[in-house]
Amino acid sequence: MKVMAYLALYREWRPKYFKDIVGQEHVTVTLINALKQGKVAHAYLFSGPRGTGKTTTAKILGKALNCSNREGAEPCNECSSCREIDQGMALDVLEIDAASNRGIEDIRNLRENIKLAPSGGKFKVYIIDEVHMLSNEAFNALLKTLEEPPANVVFVMATTEAHKVPLTILSRVQRFEFHRISVDSIISRLKEVCAELNREVDPKALQVIAVKAEGGLRDALSILDQCLLREGPVDIEHVYQIIGMVGEEFSADLVDAFLQVDYGKVIAKLGEGVALGRDPRQIIKELLDYLRQLLLYLAAGQEPLVAPNIKEKLIAQAQNAGLNKVLSWLNVLLKGEGELRFASNVRLAAELILVQTLYEQDSAVHAEVRAQVRTQTKSSSKTQTFIQTQAQTKTKTKVPAQTKAKTEKLPESLPDSNLSGEVNQAEIMAVLTEKWPDILGKIKKEKRSTHAFLLEGRPAEVRDNTLYLVFGDKFSFHRDKFTQPENKNVLEKVLEQVIGTKLNVCSLLEKEYNSLEQNSSSDEPNVQNNEKTELSSEDDPGFCVQKAVEFFGSELVQVKKD
Amino acid sequence: MSLVSLKKAIENSNIAPVYLCYGEDRYTLAEALKLLKQVFLADDPAGSNIEYFNGKEADWREVLDIANTCSFFARKLVLVDEIPFFDSTEGSGNISESSDLLLDYINDPNPMTCLVLIANKVNKGRRLFKEINKKGEILEFIYPQDSAEWLKWVRNEVEARGRVIKASTASFLLEWSGHNTGILSQELDKLVLYTEGRKEINIEDIKEVAVPLIETQVFSMLDAIAISNTRQALQRLAEVLSLEKYHLRVYTMIVRQIRLLLAAKLVRNSGGTAKHFREIAGLKPFEATKIFKQAVRFTPERLALALEDCLETELALKSSGGAPEFLLEIMVIRLCQR
Predict the structure, then answer these.
(1) Residue A535: pLDDT above 60?
(2) One domain, residues A498 and A552
(3) A171 and A233 share a domain?
(4) Are residues A118 and A131 in the same domain?
(5) Residue A219 is part of a domain; what is its CATH number?
(6) Are B245 and A48 in contact (CB < 8 Å)?
(7) Which residues pair with A124 in a beta bridge?
(8) Measured in Å, how far apart are chain A's first and last C-alpha atoms?
């Protein structure tokens, strides 16, 4: 029994007529008209993403030009010329791979050969694939030939990177840009193939294949080919397995866990994926793809490109999360994805990224809560609202024991009905002390010199929306430099970002701060008075002299006017 | 205009014995050479009276010997491309010798031969240029100089192909495919084939068949950003990314455009004109005018914030902070939210 060699689906289903080319009507209509009117250009450039039909169109054009029984513009695919071209044996249709024939000598040989008349057909067609790979010298050598090729020669150049083709070449060829093929067109072609092969494939599976092919029909057919190796009907899970995906439902579950701020569920879900043999990097990548659909839906109202059963869930999640939350998740995940590539323990790194995403979101919630607490101190009527918000936050948030203790510390320390200013300020101070290293880190990123000056200071207390920053007595230079607006503003800006409210900053030396404490008659020092103290000391001429001595030393120089 | 004067010379059978052709508009230059060749091919359809040389590689003695030799039954056309005499320093080695030989020929050319010298650029101060100017013809091929000239060029080309195009559509084509006669001519050939059976070419045909310039797409993306139309802005970005694979290049184009818009806005706010802006930014007139007009839609504050967003994206692009296409999408979404 003679065994036929297996032909890959994308080769078996490669279009043989212009009318079979999917999604490139702007190209086929023009070429058909050119063939009908005998106005075929002497040089074409087909550019566009891979798998969109560039080489296939070039071959059909080659066949149509040489076909002895052409029907309109379509080749017959039966005459000897068409068959030879299909089998790659034609002498008049030559396919050259520019990636491996990129030198000037190769192009000189080509120039010599084009002088020879076609052996059997009417035209010599040179298909130069990946033409952007030609060297500059080779392009220059080709230029003259393209300007005035012999009458019976047609060049068809194909490339995925048209920007690498010199302008001098572009202005001498007819360029066609091949579009990515739409998901619907790919699905309809895949359905056609499945029906012809008498195979049953779940429409959801076809949708996943079409989306993953990213506009390339060849890729879509290759994936389908692998899926069809399995006997019986092909379902979505099978497609996920073939392309190594965890699936959109998995990503949707992770987003659910994000929305519930459930650390445990996030970690468990990741573990589940790993147990199924999935790469944590792939899990994060797919989560990013899923969040991208969420983002595009929220920002641009684009219909999500996911399996139909997931679409409604995705839309509900998008509406629940809102644009800002999605952007903040993406911010952490995108940075994390880059770092994952270099991680030695990928699972741990992926867990950290997911927890960090939640933690950042959690911190943002608490910053919001703190902002609300401060508002409460100003208006007692808003107290009830705050308590409600707290209750809502508690019911919504399910966190692991340790994190729970940490995150609930803030609300618990606040009396329910008697929210005094002191408690609020003390709370802010506690947060500030805890986050001071983070604040310094952020300042370092903003402005290194400010960070250097601040290293010698410490937050002492917060009163009346003013942070008192105390510098050691030896560090008056640091204090003075920090007092300059360009430095002070950096701290105020970072403080606002971290604790969610605007604080004034008052910088004092240790001795100044201590005397202020002693002189203060009341428990709530008046900031204006403090500023006054600071100002009055600076206004004092003796103070200025003392500062000058500190800066320049104590040598007395007499300056005489001429 | 050089093409017109050459056509006139051909009509009057007044072809000069020596031509120097140069200029940025290589397409029109090639068209002019085609015309000349047609005249000589009419004398001898076999083309044996037309000789080609590359000026950098040719032996000039041989070139001039051939120019001095008379054909039996027809006049002779000698084309020499890439002449080297304006590229290097005057008086250097072989070039000087060849230049002297050529000068001798120009002073006493063979009246039965038309010698066409083609250069990429010329030096008008050189003796060779002055001598050709006296004894032969100099044809400079430059692109149309302003919008009106460009429009006229497009409409003439369309008419020559037996179709019509409205001024607004011609203007759209110029913006869509750029100001390059060679590329425009190829696009028109395609459009004529695509619109078979119709007389008029319209904007939809151009969008369907002609390849857009990346700059045009970036420009319309910023138009969409200006009116906070995220959907449209993302569509334009997708189109840009389908034309240009290098994300950093796309990013650079967007940033350049925003920077120019900010400059244009500041010039506008200080009472400057589009001309003033063009001088400051060093842009071509049509680009400067377009940007100056677009700047009306933005405030300087918004543009400054947009540049901050761009900076964040650049940091992410250069520090493996995610898939580049996605980062650019997020940047566009942020720009629209501003």
Answers:
(1) no
(2) yes
(3) no
(4) yes
(5) 1.10.8.60
(6) no
(7) A153
(8) 119
Tell me whether residue B186 is exposed, middle or buried, using C-beta atoms within 10 angstroms of its C-beta: 0 to 12, 13 to 18, 19 or more.
Answer: buried
The per-residue pLDDT for range A62-87, each reduced to its tens digit, is: 999 999 888 889 999 999 999 999 88
Contact A334 B209 (CB under 8 A): no
pLDDT at residue number A418: 39
- Domain of A156, CATH number, reads 3.40.50.300
Read off the pLDDT of each residue in A409-413 and give the average, rounded to a whole number. Answer: 37
Q: Which residues numbered 518-557 in A keep a CB inside 8 Å of some CB on B?
A: none
Chain B residue numbers with beta carbons less than 8 Å from the beta carbon of A41 are: 186, 189
Q: Quickly list H helices, A419-526.
A: 421-446, 448-454, 476-483, 485-499, 510-519
**Average model confidence (pLDDT) across chain B:** 88
Mark whether A316 and A420 lie in a shared domain.
no
Boundary of a domain, candidates A365, A384, A401: A365
B-facing residues of A in 121-150 (CB < 8 A) are 147
- Domain identity same for A57 and A96: yes
Type of residue found at A178: F
Contact A174, A43 (CB under 8 A): yes
Question: How many independent structural domains does chain A possess?
Answer: 4
Which of A147, A172, A302 is the closest to B231 by Cβ?
A: A302
User: Which of A120-134, A163-177, A452-466 is predicted least confidently?
Assistant: A452-466
C-alpha to C-alpha distances, A164 to A5, A145, A161, nearest whole angstrom = 38, 19, 6
Residue B53, φ and ψ in degrees, nearest 5: -140, 155
Query: Which ipTM value was assigned to this complex?
Result: 0.81
Does residue A4 sit within a domain?
A: no
Contacts of A339 in chain B (CB under 8 A): 320
Residue A377 lies in a domain: no
In whole angstroms, give the CA distance from residue A150 to residue A165: 22
Of B30, B186, B214, the CB nearest to A173: B186
CB atoms within 10 A of CB B137: 20
Give A156→chain B minimum CA distance, Å.
15
In a domain? residue A371: no
Please state the φ and ψ torsions of residue A281, each to the nearest 5 degrees: -60, -40
The residue segments making up the domain with residue A342 are: 248-365
Q: Are A459 and A426 in contact (CB under 8 A)?
A: no
Select the residue of A48, A179, A300 nearest B234 (Cβ to Cβ): A300
Q: Best mutation site among B215, B236, B309, B326 for testing chain A: the one with the most A CBs within 10 Å? A: B326
Domains and CATH numbers, chain B: 3-140 (3.40.50.300), 147-209 (1.10.8.60), 214-337 (1.20.272.10)
Q: What tens digit of pLDDT does each residue of B176-232 get?
A: 998 899 999 999 999 999 999 899 999 999 999 999 988 888 888 888 888 888 999
Contact list in A for residue B242 (CB cut-off 8 A) is 48-49, 177, 179-180
A413 & A530 share domain: yes
Residue of B nearest to A43 (CA): B186
Spatial separation of the C-alpha atoms in residues A258 and A245, rounded to whole Å: 20
Q: Which residues contact B79 (CB under 8 A, 6 or more apart)?
A: B33, B50, B51, B52, B53, B116, B118
Residues of chain A found within 8 Å of residue B196, distances taken between Cβ atoms: 33, 37
Whether residues A360 and A285 fall in one domain: yes
pLDDT value at position B215? 85
- A380 is a domain residue: no
* This prediction's pTM: 0.70
Does residue A422 sit in the same domain as residue A502?
yes
| Domain boundary, last residue among A221, A243, A265 | A243
Q: Can you give the CATH number for the domain in which A317 is found?
A: 1.20.272.10
